[in-house]
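ping. complex inputs:
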Amino acid sequence: MSRLSIAAGLLLAGLLLAGLGVPAAHALEPSERLANPVLEARAEAIGSELRCMVCQNESIEQSDAGLAHDLRLLVRRLLVKGDTNQQVIDYIVARYGIFVLLDPPFERVTWLLWLAPPLILAGAGMMVLLRARQRRPDPVVAALTPDERARAAALLGEEA
Amino acid sequence: MLVEIGHFALVLALLVAAVQGIVPLIGAQAGSRPLMEVARPAALLQFGLIAFSFAIFIHAHIVSDFSVLNVFENSSLEKPMLYKVTGAWGSHEGSMMLWVFMLSLFGGLVALFGRTLPASLRARTLAVQGLLGLGTLAFILGTSDPFTRLFPVPADGRGLNPLLQDPGLAFHPPCLYFGYVGFSICYSFAIAALLEGRVGAAWARWVRPWALTAWCGLTLGVAMGSWWAYYVLGWGGWWAWDPVENASFMPWLLGTALLHSAAVVEKRETLQRWTVLLAILTFGMSLIGTFLVRSGILTSVHSFALDPSRGVFILVLVAIVIGSGLVLYALRAPGLETGSPFAPVSREGALVLNNLLLSAGMATVFLGTFYPLFAEVWSGVKLSVGPPYFDRTFVPIVAPGIVAMVIGPVLAWRRGNLRAALRRLFPALLGAILAPLVVLSFNRGASPAALAGIGLASWAMLGVIADLADRGGLGKLPVSTVLRRLRHLPRGTWGYALAHFGVGVLIAGIVVSTAWRSERIATVHSGSELSIAGRTLHFVGVTAGNVENYQAQRAEIVVERPGDTSFTVYPERRWYPLAQTWTSHVSITTNGFGDLYLALGEPDGNGGWVLRAYYNPLVPWIWFGAVLAALGGLVSLTDRRVRMRLPVPRVTAAVGPRPAEPG
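pong. complex structure:
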C-alpha cells in the first residue's frame, strides 16, 4: 500500500464521516406533525438547521419556545403549499436574516469561516513536512541488519 | 463572624500568593537557595488558606446563612442538603472559588510531591503558579466577592436554578475544573522551563504525570457535562457544539495533543519547543473557556449566573497570561535545543500527525465558536455557526487521526516500517472492512457516513486488540506465556490500550446512536399504547404530588417487549414554584447497548399528554468510552509514578540542580 493511497483513504474516511450529521431530535408536538411522512421528514430536516432566535443556541426543532413552535408551523405550511426546501429557507432568511441559519452559507462574510479549516490544516501540514525533511535521520545509522536487530532486542530485553 | 474569617483568609491567601509569585523568582534568578525555598511553604500555605476559606463558604451554604448575599441568591431553606453543598459552586462566585481552589491544589501538590525536582525549576514553577493564583484571587476579591453580606437578613433565599439541582451537574464542575485548572501546572512548568532555558527528557518526565492527571479529570468532566445534557435537556441530545461545550472541548483537544507530544520529548528528546507551546496554549484555552462561560459573551444553553462587566477583568487576565507566555516563548524558544531526527513514518511521525490534526481541529472549533462574535464586530452581520458547520469541518479533520491512532503505537521510534505495521494490524484491517459489510447486509439503507463510522470504530477497537495480541505473541507462543507476557507489559502500555480502545467505543456509540436512533412523539391517554424499537409502551396515567421543593407530574408507563419481563417507568415533569420553572425528569432504561428514553411533555387539556419516546442504540458507549479513556490515563499514571521514584542517573545529569542562570 503506497503512502499516497493511505493518505487518500484517510481523507475519504473523514469526508464520508462528515455526512453523519446532527441527530434529529425534536421538541415538536404531535399536533404540529404533517400527515405526509415525506413532507414531515423534509420539515424536520429544514427545522434542525434553523436557529430559534429567542433561545440559547437551539434549533427550532429542539426548542420549546413559542417562536420555535410558530416557525415549525410556518415551515410546514410552506411545504404543504408546494415550496422547495430552498424556497422555505429563503423565505425565513428574508425575514430574519442569516442569523437563523445554523449552517452558515458561503458568503463574503463567511469565506474565512469555511476556508480557514482546510487552509490551517494544509499550512500546518506543509510546515511539518518541511521540518520533517530537515530532520530525516541518516539512513546509514538507522538501518540495522536483521541480525543486529535481533541482538539489540536480546540486549534490551523485551521492551518495545 | 465565621464569614468574615473566611473572607480574611482569602485576603491572606492573596498576600501569600504575591510572596509565592515574587520571592522564589528572584531567588532562582539570583541563585539564592533560601529565597527559592520560600516557594514550597508558600504554596502549601496558600492552598491551606483557600481551602479553609472555601470550606467556610460551603458551610454558609449548608447552614443557609442568608446574611451572605451569595447564599441568599442561590439557595433556599427547602432545598435538599446535597444541593445546598453542591449549590455552593453553582453560582459565579462559588465557581470562581472552586477554580482558585483547584489552582492552589495543584500548586500544593507540586510542592508536596515535587521533591525530586531541581530547586530552581521547582521554585520557578511554583512562583508562576503563585502569580496565577494572585490574578485569580484579585479577580475574586475585586469583582466577585463570595462573602458579601446582606442586611437586613432575609427569611428565605431565592433558590438555585432547578436545572442545576441534579446529581450529574453537582459533581460535573469539580471534575471539569480539576482538569481545566490542572493544566495550569503544565503552563507553570512550561514558563519555568523557558526561564531556565532548557527542556529535556527530564522536564517532560515531570510534566507528563501532571498533564495526565489534569487530562483524566477533564475527560471525565466533559463526559459528565454531555451526560447531563443528555438526560436533563429532555430530547436526548448529548452534544450540540454549544459555546460552553466547546469551551471545555478546546483545552481537551490541546491537552490530548500535549500528552502525546510530551511522550515524544520524554522518549526521544525532540519536539521540545512545540510541547512547551502546547502547554502554554492548553492552559490558555482553559482560561479562554472560563472567560467564555463567565462573561456570557456568547449565548449558550449552559449559561448560568452571567455578568458582562466581569468579562473585562477576565479578558485582561487571559491576555496577560497568554500574552506573557507567548512573548517569553518567542524570546526563549529559539535557544532551546532542537531534537533528534526521525523519519516521517515512525512513532514520532504518527504523534506529530496526531498533534497536527488535534491542533487543526481545535483551531476549527475555536473559529466556529468565536466567528459569530468576530463577524458582528467587523461587519455588523449577525450570524450563527451551528452543528452542521462542525460536522463538516471538525469531523473530517479529526477522523484521519483515528486511523493513524491505531498505526502509531505499532510503529518503531525514529524509523518505522508501515508495511510491517499493517501486517501486524491485519486482523483489525480485516475487521474494519467486514464490520460495515455485515451492518450493510442487515440494513440496506445504511448511509455511507454511518458505514464509514462503523469501520473506523471497529478499526480503533480491533487495532488495540491486535496490537496487544501481537505484543503477547498470540499464535506463536503457548497461551500461558502469552498471558504472562501481557501481564508484564508496562502499565503505560495498558494505559494506552485502554484509552485508545475507549476512543473506539466512543466512536461506535456516536455513530450508531446518531444513525439508528428511533423516535416516536405522540399524544397519549390513559390506556393508550405506543410502540418503539420492538417495545410496547402502555400509558397508565399521570399522578401529581408535592416532593421536597417542587411539584411533580409523574407518568406511569409499562414497557413490554416480547420474550422479556415487563417493567414500569416513571418519567416526570417538575414545577419549581420558587424559580417559576418547569424541568423534565426523563426516564432512561439502559441495557448497556441502548437506551429507552422517555420524556413526559405537556398535557393537551383534554386528558391527553404529549409523550416523547426515543430509542438510542449504543448511546451509553459514548460515556463508557470516555470513562475507559480516563481509566487508561489513570493506569499510565501509576506507571509514571513508579518510574519517577526510580533513580535515573542520566536524567539528573541532564538537568541537575544547578545554580540558576538562564541560558
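Residues 21-25 of chain A have pLDDT under 50 and may be disordered.
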